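Tutorial, part two.
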Amino acid sequence: METLRHVVVLVHLVGFAVLFGAWAAQAFGGKRQITRMMDWGLAIAGAAGLALAAPWGLADGVEMNYAKIGTKLVVLLIIGALLGIGAGRQKRGATVPPAVFWLVGLLTLANAGIALLWR
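Running the prediction step on this input gives:
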């Protein structure tokens, strides 16, 4: 069971990498647009994160940190909202507001930081 949990952690990290990598490619490539890869990365990271929030495969005596899980979920929902706002503006022919675009990257990085640093 522990091996399966580690595989889900790997999938979660891949989702983060897809989201952040797609954002970084746009940020440093000059276009600064919301792409479908960002949406896919968000979906992968979110689904794997929810699977990790279930209390399965933990060693005896290990307890879940529900405050951390809740915080990460709220940040994930905000990222999703920002991606939706940016994609909606793109479909109407407008540009993505710089604040929305840069917040996506900042919050994605913050979510990874929360995962790593909050014990």
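The two ends are 22 Å apart (CA to CA). In part three we will examine how such features are distributed along the chain.
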